[in-house]
Amino acid sequence: MDEIRHANSLPTTILRDTREQRPWTFDGCAVETRDVTLSTGDYTVPTACTHDPESDTYHPRFAVERKSGHDFLTALTWERDRFSDELRRAAEWPHPLAVVVETSWETLLRNRGCMAWRDIHPNQVVGTLSAWTRHYNVAFRFAESRRRAELCAFLLLVRHSLRRREQI
Fold first, then answer.
1. CATH of the domain at 52
2. In a domain, 5, yes or no
3. Which domain holds residue 48?
4. pLDDT of residue 11
5. Coil, helix or strand at residue 165
6. Are 57 and 98 in contact (CB under 8 A)?
7. Are the beta carbons of 101 and 69 closer than 8 angstroms?
8. Is residue 132 part of a domain?
9. Which of 65, 69, 44 is nearest to 160 (CA)?
10. What Å distances lie between residue 98 and 31, 56, 62, 113, 117, CA to CA?
11. Distance of alpha carbon 154 from alpha carbon 73, whole angstroms
12. pLDDT per residue over 142-156, tens digit each?
């Protein structure tokens, strides 16, 4: 059965923050990416943003924050205040800031991969995530690989676009 893409139902463009160090390209996802400055998050869709032409900054009301395993652990420890500021910026959004981590939950809990050489106990990770999800408008997703994390982010952006279409 052929899929028909209805107007405004699926995103055709994904906005990617210019500060992304290892950006996802969404190869095979039938979307284009456009590099812009986002006030919060790393990826969003144009319909979820307002644009400030004076600063040339997009202010999303929904976004995906990408974290490698190493970046995620750094956000929990040394850069905790900076990351908490990011979470605060999403406090008033209608949907949570989605943080997609490029490592599995199992890897973190078993002290493997990015956790193997870190001075952080898995219980600290669990406690911090529990507190952040209670206090901030955030939802964490963990994926076994970078590619699966990228696809997870794409699906979150599609889901947001479909929800928005239902509300119109």
1. 3.40.50.10130
2. no
3. 13-167
4. 79
5. helix
6. no
7. yes
8. yes
9. 44
10. 19, 23, 8, 22, 26
11. 23
12. 999 999 999 999 999
Q: Distance from CA of residue 131 to its chain's centroid? A: 18
Q: Which of 5, 14, 52 is nearest to 151 (CA)?
A: 14
The residue type found at 73 is L
How do residues 31-46 score in pLDDT, each as one tens digit?
A: 999 999 999 999 999 9
Amino acid identity of residue 110, one-letter, is R
In a domain, 31, yes or no: yes
Query: Six-digit token pair at 142?
Result: 């963990």
Q: For the chain, how many structural domains are there in total?
A: 1
Residue 1 lies in a domain: no
What's the pTM value of the predicted model, to 2 decimals? 0.89
- Single-letter amino acid, residue 92: E
Tokens of 133: 């999800």
Q: For residue 80, which of 123, 42, 129, 116 has the smallest C-alpha distance?
A: 129
Q: What long-range pairs does 89-92 form, CB within 8 A, spacing at least 24?
A: 89/39, 89/40, 90/40, 90/41, 90/63, 90/136, 90/137, 90/138, 91/136, 91/137, 92/137
Let me know: does 40 contact 97? Beta carbons within 8 Å. Answer: yes
DSSP H or E run through 160: helix 146-167
